[in-house]
Specification:
185 residues; alpha+beta; Gyrase A, domain 2; 2 domains; four-stranded antiparallel β-sheet; two-stranded antiparallel ribbon; 4 helices; elongated
């Protein structure tokens, strides 16, 4: 019972950290990266479709992304979705492909992105803590129902706290790396 609860919590916490890592990848830095477009969707045949399902991405230069739509009819929708996103970029149409040139980040924009990264990190931490609380409640209920002893519950809680700290520290490290990446000129 305890091991299963802890395994479930561990798996869900790992997913929360991975989600936070994906959120950080979508935050633009001074360099071009295909993950910047991961959260953007375009309308394609009446459905909101992620851009990575509609086009291929190449990064030929550090601040340029070339987007090759799989279907030429999707190009206007892709262009519109990128233009309306919060990336602050304007794609240009080269006939068959779209080019996105990333301007140099201003100091003000860097600070905005750091603030956004801190918000995403806090969301990740809250998610991990909520998973900890849910696991703790499940173990307390098992103790109340006499399925586990008080000592087993206390030991499991210590393991759960260690697991929670590990994942929160991982999110903090991700945030520190993202801040350094954003401040790197």
């Amino acid at each position: 019972m305890i091991d299963q609860t802890l395994r479930d919590a561990d798996g869900k916490m790992a997913k929360a950290v991975e989600h936070t890592r994906e959120e950080f990848a979508a935050i633009r830095t001074g360099r071009a990266h295909p993950a910047m477009f991961a959260q953007i969707t375009a309308e394609y045949y009446g459905q909101q479709t992620p851009l990575n399902q509609l086009a291929g991405f190449q990064v030929p230069e550090p601040r340029t992304v070339v987007i090759s739509p799989y279907d030429a009819s999707a190009k206007p929708a892709i262009e519109k979705a990128i233009r309306e996103s919060d990336l602050g970029v304007n794609p240009t149409d080269d006939g068959k492909v779209l080019r996105v040139s990333l301007p140099e980040l201003t100091e003000e924009r860097r600070k905005e992105y750091i603030k956004l990264a801190k918000t995403k990190a806090e969301e990740g931490r809250v998610s991990v803590r909520n998973l900890r609380r849910a696991a703790k409640q499940a173990m307390d209920k098992a103790e109340k129902d006499s399925e586990i002893s008080k000592d087993d519950n206390a030991g499991a809680e210590k393991r759960l706290d260690g697991m929670t700290k590990k994942y929160v520290d991982t999110i903090d490290d991700l945030l520190k790396n993202k801040e350094a990446e954003l401040l790197d000129i």
